[in-house]
Write a structure and sequence with these properties.
Blueprint: E1 7-10, H1 21-25, H2 27-30, H3 34-55, H4 61-75, H5 81-91, H6 100-109, E2 113-118, H7 122-131, E3 140-143, H8 154-164, E4 171-175, H9 178-187, E5 190-194, E6 210-212, H10 218-221
Parallel strand pairs: 1-2, 1-4, 2-3, 4-5, 5-6
Helix pairs in contact: 3-4
Length: about 220
Amino acid sequence: MFTGISACVFDAYGTLFDVHSAVARHAKRLGGCADAVSALWRAKQLEYTWLRSLMGRHRDFMQVTADALDYALDVHGVDDGALRDDLLGAYRVLDCYGEVPAVLGALKEAGMRTAILSNGAPAMLESAVRHCGITGLVDAVLSVEEVGVYKPDPRVYQLAVRRLKVSATAVSFQSSNAWDAAGAAAFGFHVAWVNRFRQKPERLPEPPHAELRTLSELPPLLGL
């Protein structure tokens, strides 16, 4: 059980929002390569954030997302400008996982402060939060655009400490991305890895402090 927690901070993409729901809406138009396109799109999206951070060539997450999609479509021989635009539009209004509104509501009812800390650009996050109907359930939506570098740079995690005015040890951080969980743990957060798809643990320093299957397991972890 996590103790001494006063704020719950969530990664957005893959943790609150289903990153594969964009392709799912247009799967018939992609045909048999839909799942492969979605997987490669996500993999390249993350890879480009890390590489841009290392290169010192930051662009916001919408640009990175578009670049990654272009790569994935090119690999699979998909040349359809209208479909590309529709996929990018769908990414702005991703579906959230089913338990998300109830969990956020329970945390708020218990007096816990809540926030999103994401690679996403502010407009992307605002759109997704509104689409999922969770605007009133989060106290702050924090974007890496405030520091101009992507996770797992420590400056990103420091955003939550500064904005929420809490110590790192008072934060429970939730992410479905094991590399993000490692970065947050190294920073000093209590970290719950939301391992929805039974992935193997990463070989990185600072493993998460707890492993959850869904966010529904979070309130009991906090003693709520």
